[in-house]
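In this section we turn from sequence analysis to structure. A common task in structural bioinformatics is to predict how a protein folds when a small molecule is present, because the ligand can shape the pocket around it. The inputs are simple: the amino acid sequence and a SMILES string for the ligand, here fe (ii) ion. Study the lines below before reading on.
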Amino acid sequence: MATVTDAGQAAVDAAQAAHTAAFDAAVAADERIEPRDWMPDAYRATLVRQIAQHAHSEIIGMQPEANWITRAPSLRRKAILMAKVQDEAGHGLYLYSAAETLGTSREELLDKLHAGRQKYSSIFNYPTLTWADVGAIGWLVDGAAITNQVPLCRCSYGPYARAMVRICKEESFHQRQGYELLLTLSRGTEAQHAMAQDAVDRWWWPSLMMFGPPDDESSHSAQSMAWKIKRHSNDELRQRFVDICVPQAEALGLTLPDPDLKWNEERGQHDFGAIDWTEFWDVLKGNGPCNEQRISQRRKAHDEGAWVREAAAAHAAKKTARNEQEATA
Amino acid sequence: MDTGAALALGDDALVLSHRLAEWAGHAPVLEEEVALANIALDLLGQARILLSMAGDEDELAYLREERAFRNLQLVEQPNGDFAHTIARQLLFSTYQRFLYEALAGDPVFGPLAVKAVKEVAYHQDHAEQWTLRLGDGTEESQGRMQRGLDALWRFTGEMFRPVEGLALNWQKLEERWLASVTAVIERATLRVPGGPRTGAWAAGAGREGLHTESFGRMLAEMQHLHRSHPGASW
Ligand SMILES: [Fe+2]
Ligand SMILES: [Fe+2]
């Protein structure tokens, strides 16, 4: 910069170096970075991107499950499903608040989601075709989310880590409820058992894709690991998830749709078949079965709610004006 | 015990809960996703207790025909826009609150009423706050809120037709309801609708099993899966 003298520039550089050193030391010592702390711009941008994507996933994820609320086959299941979908809305709220601590408003993030400039988890671009899908989502999708998110409870950014602690508790309820739903179907009538198996067949592979591309193709992973935003690689977490699911599927009396799935004595882990990454990238690009539907429902709800938000703002402004008038009168 | 009253109150809660649950994923702001689901869940909880007093909750919810439902026509009305939903909630929650207050000492319904009235007080407050915001908000919101009240007003007379098995002063209940609702509507700079509160053709119809056309579709959706697998457990 021409207006800054060399001495001035040196002072700025020195301050920057001191900030960076303090930040690096805090991360290395596993201390939490808080909203008022100095942080590198790229760290902030990475967090906003990740938290936004996570928040968007929570609210888009309400759609495939809400699809079954009005058809839930017992009042008990209906109450559980309604509470679950409500929890996901609450998760969205916590996460948008966490993003706000980084200086990015919910409105701004929603606009980006609606414009297709920010993503949400591709898993929600698959349709819920039968009641058993509600169980499969709870067991596999919430299960995969937990595997991904438990390490985030130790994320270096304080507000995100704390939001994740609350969220993980609720996700583990969802996972157990989904499992229990599938178990009931699996042990139920022949038609119910078939419904459960069909749902697991359809949700298994997309759930494995939830961990993201293989480590050698993952663009953001290395830097996120260094910043302790991320603690384990995509492939590590995917392996952990497979190892958790195999015995659970057996207990459910259901099979996983992978002929190559088997215990590897030497590795002490399961081997599993090749994931269809063409499908993954295709769905991510917008060509999944429900991409268009999910985003247009979201936009529609937002647009149709515009007059409500305007009314609330107008009312609040009138109230403030009245209070001020009273105070000065 | 005569199960008629449990069915009337239980069906009100069950049906309105279902309508509110239809908002999931469609609410105007995220906070309202949470609030509407909360109200729907409270009502479903009440419905389960009340229906269980009358029989098996799932048999009653899923296997009765439309003509056997005893809910008010008000609660089965489709959601419409957000103002319409809020108008329905204001009219019903105010009624339900005073009804449960009056039932606090009832030997059969007292325990439920005492617990539920706390939930309902929140539902009423939520509806009141939104009536004020929308009524005294923008020109558009005011028009929508007024249209919601106008459209639903004719379903409110039915609420005060005595239900067998509920010993209470229905006239006093109606007076309290009208005074409360009037006060909120006026504070919200809206007009108390002028039309009749019941149609001569259908006074008290919901409680007698006569419903409006959209209700059959609502039940078809709600009952379809359960009925497709006779005898299965879920
Ligand atoms: Fe969630
Ligand atoms: Fe969840």
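Chain A touches chain B through 49 residues (CB under 8 Å). As an exercise, try to locate the residues that line the fe (ii) ion site and compare them with your own expectations.
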